[in-house]
Design brief:
single chain; alpha+beta; 2 domains; three-stranded antiparallel β-sheet; 5 strands; disordered C terminus; Reverse transcriptase RNase H-like domain-containing protein
């Protein structure tokens, strides 16, 4: 999305503004690698006071809003969907499967959920109709920026 376009990098870290103008001998090898990576996209770094950097502030708060508004799972509907799900029926009647499906009481509702107990820890079998909801809910628990930065950092360190 950014490749091939001119753009500016705004930061509240004043030393970064002069990073590309300083003598490379003053930088550590790690700093040089990081600057090299950044320079592949842009060397136009500008200072903005932290309190004025509304974009960074807004991006850092995105997940807080989504976590507080995430829907609560209705376990009774979940149990009903398990009974009607074709995948559940296949696994219940398939002796070749390694899944050990058993009904376990749900502690927050008055119902039983079909769980795989093959690992010793009951794991609910997610019916097809709930898979996207469960995936989205679990996926949104992780702050995307921190995850992408940690993944980038580990792959960056392995590369250099």
């Amino acid at each position: 999305m950014l490749e091939g376009r001119e753009f500016q990098i705004y930061t509240d870290q004043k030393p970064l503004i002069y990073a590309f103008k300083q003598n490379p001998d003053k930088c550590s090898p790690r700093q040089l690698r990081h600057l090299d990576f950044i320079s592949q996209y842009s060397t136009d770094i500008r200072h903005v006071q932290g309190s004025q950097n509304i974009v960074a502030d807004a991006l850092s708060r995105i997940e807080v809003d989504s976590i507080t508004k995430s829907p609560i799972l209705n376990f009774k509907e979940f149990a009903r969907a398990q009974k009607d799900d074709s995948d559940v029926q296949k696994f219940l009647h398939n002796d070749a499967s390694s899944l050990q499906l058993e009904l376990k009481p749900c502690q927050t509702s008055n119902c039983n959920l079909l769980c795989d107990t093959s690992t010793g820890v009951p794991r609910p079998f997610v019916p097809t109709s709930f898979r996207k909801l469960i995936f989205d809910h679990l996926h949104n628990l992780v702050h995307p920026l921190s995850l992408s930065l940690s993944l980038w950092d580990s792959s960056f360190n392995q590369t250099y």
